[in-house]
Amino acid sequence: MGALAAAIAIGLAALGAGLGNGMIVSRTVEGIARQPELRGALQTTMFIGVALVEAIPIFAVVIAFMVMGQ
Amino acid sequence: MQQYKKMITRQRKWMFYLLAIFVLGAGFTEYLSIFLGLLLGTVLSFYNLWLMQRKINQFGQALAENTSSPKGIGSFSRLATAGLAVIIALRFEEYFHLTAVIIGLMTTYVVIMIDFALFRSRD
Question: Where is the chain membrane-spanning (chain A) (predicted)?
Answer without folding.
Answer: 46-68
